[in-house]
Amino acid sequence: MSGWSWTRWWGIVLKEFRQLRRDRVSFAMVIGVPIIQMVLFGYAINSDPRHLPTAVIVHEPSEFTRSFVAAMQHSSYFDVLPALDSEALATAALDRGEVMFVLTVPPGFTRSLLRGERPDLLVEADATDPTATGMALSVLPELARQVALRELDGPWLKLRPADPPFGVIVHRRYNPEGITQYNIIPGLMGVVMSMTLVMMTGLAMTRERERGTMENLLATPVQPLEVITGKIVPYVLIGLVQATVILLGARGLFDVPFSGNLLAVYLAALLFIAASLAVGITLSSLARNQLQAVQLTIFYFLPNILLSGFMFPFRGMPEWAQRIGSILPLTHFNRLMRGILLKGNGWAEQWPHIWPQLLFTALVMLVAVLAYRKTLD
Amino acid sequence: MTIGNEWAIAVDGLNKHFGDKHVVNNLSLRVRPGEIFGFLGPNGSGKTTSIRLMCGLLTPDSGSGSCLGYDIVREAEQIKRNVGYMTQKFSYWDDLTIRENLDFVARMYEMPDRSAVVARALDELGLASRAGQLAGSLSGGWKQRLALAACMLHQPRLLLLDEPTAGVDPTARRDFWAELHRLAAKGISVLVSTHYMDEAERCHKLAYIAYGSLLAQGTAGEIVAAAGLATVCVRGSGLGSVAEQLERHPAVSQTVVFGDTLHVSGRDLPALQHAVGVELAGRGLGIEVIPTGLEDVFIHLMKQARDNFAGADA
Ligand SMILES: Nc1ncnc2c1ncn2[C@@H]1O[C@H](COP(=O)(O)OP(=O)(O)OP(=O)(O)O)[C@@H](O)[C@H]1O
Ligand SMILES: [Mg+2]
């Protein structure tokens, strides 16, 4: 058993870089996927969507309610559909997803408003997509205040208080939990990196086997660890580039705040990159051909997406799913990113999300080295 | 180890199975330092597998052996450093240039003065002007020559060449064999598998395997002598039907058509001559006794082996 050689290691690194540079499709994927994802998500997860279809049920129309509905329309958040003016019609439309909101002005609303009794408006919101409804809902009280200021002048001036003259009660239906947009961007970073990095490295070794070049590699004195780590290096850089693209996008498209420090963000990214690459290399040692490598990647990728808290709230999952989720690097990376970006957490608070990733990487890497076959058998 | 000095390759009783297929059957070989050893056998006979066993790329199921004095199972690392193995299928990187491929190999063997080594190899190959071309865009023969240059780059003491000249033009093949003899003269040992008879005749020693078993070993002369075949050459036209007719005669063990001549071989020369004379009387064909060629012997060996193994398989 001969020792580690930097010359051989660097030879592998160079070769991998050169091949990657000529592999247009992979190269495009590595750089293009995060950009495309960012742009797509930039429009898909519009955190401030407007013109949401709305049904308004007014039991006793008055000057005030007309003015309020006009103000809703004018705010551009709501498109009031005048045909849906009965409760039955409106509820059915909400069920079918044809409207996002049903605003109900209860009987006697105007009268009790004028008496200063602070009556309530009822809003039912389709909260299956909370990011879509969130902003619109939050402008409602402000609308109410402005309409009140404008309408309640003259004899009613004494009623014009600092707080809105009436309350808005919101029922979030279908999904009372709600995920915020900030959850998605750090998550997206992890998702993009684990998808492309695991797949790229997953293909790295199987490609050699499939093309027959593995025989040549095995015939040279190069060591398993040199091959494995050498093949990883280019992808570490690629991972960092992807992280940067997403961070820039997070800032530019989503205004995700940066409370923490940037060095911590990159260290966290490196940690996650290492975990993803270890998985990729292991998969490629296990897979017999490139197709299998891709299948294994997806097999790894799905639980990561579903159980890491990226798609569904982690706390909402059953116990066993949470347990699986807390093994996965993406879960910890998501929390790490949220902690650093949004809360500005320090190392002490982060440690519980660091060591699981370190342990995971070490174990998976061990499997990779053990699974690396030094012969063709 | 004494064996290391005496033999470049010494393997004993190697066996290898793939599933229930016995691919290498009790293979024992000896190759001397400075010897060019030809490895022949029909397709699927186990040549490539045997070579992989010898350079540590496959582990034998049983048997032992050494290359350059290093054990083929335990000291595969040492063997890899000192042996140049050229795979049958081109296995360098299509998406690297010629220079990058050679440079990569040089790095794998930690060669000092890398760029000079690579430049020299490119010069000798005659590829210096195309060094920046992707290896994948080379023609088949040129790929073969690149592979050969690459596997000799680290100046190995033993070359294991798996059909190195398949698809290479005659001039390049002649140059290649001249080079092999130059290397052998310097004490480098070569084990080379081939399907070409002219190449077999240029080897110091030969081994012929079929169905994983070694059927003959020795110099070309020894192998021909050991086969104990006599051959008669028939010259003329319409040889196809003549061959069929002769094939049925008990004194004839095989017939091979070479263009306008027909080689008829059998174990017993007088009986063979008699048979040919009787069967072909009055046809106006030229008949003469010739020395049995290597090709006649190999075809004979292959046929015998097929008969034996067909019986064994049933
Ligand atoms: N990895 C493998 N798995 C299963 N069977 C194999 C494997 N490699 C070779 N074989 C089988 O072993 C037998 C011998 O193959 P090998 O490649 O050694 O023959 P060869 O003499 O080199 O043939 P050729 O002249 O065509 O190159 C063949 O029947 C082949 O199908
Ligand atoms: Mg072969």
UniProtKB/TrEMBL annotation, chain A:
Membrane-topology descriptor: Multi-pass membrane protein
Keywords in alphabetical order: Cell membrane, Membrane, Transmembrane, Transmembrane helix, Transport
Keyword Transmembrane helix (UniProt): yes
Segments passing through the bilayer: 25-45, 184-205, 232-250, 262-281, 293-312, 354-372
Stretches of the chain forming a coiled coil according to its record: none
Keyword Transmembrane (UniProt): yes
One Pfam match: ABC2_membrane_3
Superkingdom per UniProt: Bacteria
One MF annotation (Gene Ontology) recorded for this entry: ABC-type transporter activity
GO cellular component terms attached to this protein's record: plasma membrane
Location (main, coarse): membrane
Subcellular location: Cell membrane
Span of domain ABC transmembrane type-2: 146-375
Family affiliation: Belongs to the ABC-2 integral membrane protein family.
Record-given protein name: ABC transporter permease
From TrEMBL, chain B:
Keyword vocabulary terms for this entry: ATP-binding, Cell membrane, Membrane, Nucleotide-binding
Cross-referenced SMART domains: AAA
CDD domains in the record: ABC_DR_subfamily_A
The keyword Signal belongs to this UniProt entry's keyword annotation: no
A GO MF term: ATP binding
Keyword ATP-binding annotated: yes
Cross-referenced SUPFAM superfamilies: P-loop containing nucleoside triphosphate hydrolases
Protein's recorded name: ABC transporter ATP-binding protein
Species whose genome carries this gene: Chitinilyticum piscinae
The ABC transporter domain, residue ranges: 9-236
Coiled-coil intervals: none
